[in-house]
């Protein structure tokens, strides 16, 4: 996808509702372990976690260049915590996947040789990220702000 067809911009507070909704719906749909929880309890509890992550992390948004409120995707991350970059969540709308947008975002956030992922689901393939980082691990305790 030519770069003039999208922009990468900083998170705006008006993005919060859309981002939280995408994450909550994505986790519920793609994580069989999560679906063992009571759905209402999950939605309330994990919304608190997501808002905490958004408050302490960086979020970049992929958006339409002419209508920046039209979000194609986003990535929530922390750079260089100890020996690791931290990836909390990455999302692209289905119609914008496989166009190289995630590669564009990874090139912006990578500062270390190691990556730690705080969210994982049945479809995430950490081995794919080894194209960018030498070591990729899952650490669910990062959800709570552990560094």
Query: What is the multimeric organization of the chains shown?
Result: single chain
Might you state the CATH topology name? Aminopeptidase
Please tell me the total number of domains: 1
- Could you tell me the strand content as a percent range? 25-35%
Helix content estimate: 25-40%
- Please mark out the parts with pLDDT under 50 across 5 or more consecutive residues, or reply none: none
Q: What is the name of the CATH superfamily? A: Gcn5-related N-acetyltransferase (GNAT)
- The averaged pLDDT comes out at 88
Number of strands: 6
**Global outline:** globular
Strand pairing plus helix content: what structural class? Answer: alpha/beta
- List the total number of helices: 3
In CATH, the architecture is 3-Layer(aba) Sandwich
**How many strands, what sense, and barrel or not for the largest sheet?**
6 strands, mixed
The arrangement of helices and strands along the chain is: EHHEEEHEE
> What is the rounded Rg?
15 Å
CATH C-level class: Alpha Beta
Rounded to the nearest angstrom, the distance between the terminal CA atoms is: 35 Å
- Biggest sheet strand order reads 1-2-3-4-5-6
Task: Explain what you see.
By secondary structure, the protein is an alpha/beta fold. The protein has one domain (3-144): Gcn5-related N-acetyltransferase (GNAT) (Aminopeptidase, 3-Layer(aba) Sandwich), CATH 3.40.630.30. It is built from 3 helices and 6 strands. It has helices at residues 16-30, 39-56, 101-109; strands spanning 7-10, 58-63, 71-81, 84-92, 114-117, 135-138. Strands 1-2-3-4-5-6 form a 6-stranded mixed beta sheet, with helices on both faces. The longest helix is centred in the N-terminal third of the chain and has 18 residues, at 39-56. It is globular. The mean pLDDT is 88.
């Amino acid at each position: 996808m030519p770069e003039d067809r999208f922009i990468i911009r900083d998170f705006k507070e008006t993005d919060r509702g859309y981002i939280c909704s995408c994450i909550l719906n994505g986790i519920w749909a793609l994580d069989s372990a999560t679906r063992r929880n009571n759905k209402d309890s999950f939605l309330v509890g994990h919304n608190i976690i997501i808002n905490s992550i958004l408050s302490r992390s960086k979020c970049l948004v992929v958006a339409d260049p002419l209508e920046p409120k039209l979000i194609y995707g986003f990535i929530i991350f922390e750079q260089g915590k100890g020996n690791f970059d931290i990836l909390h969540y990455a999302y692209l709308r289905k119609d914008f996947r496989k166009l190289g947008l995630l590669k564009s975002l990874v090139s912006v956030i990578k500062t270390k040789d190691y990556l730690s992922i705080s969210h994982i689901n049945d479809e995430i393939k950490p081995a794919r990220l080894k194209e960018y980082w030498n070591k990729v691990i899952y650490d669910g305790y990062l959800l709570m702000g552990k560094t």
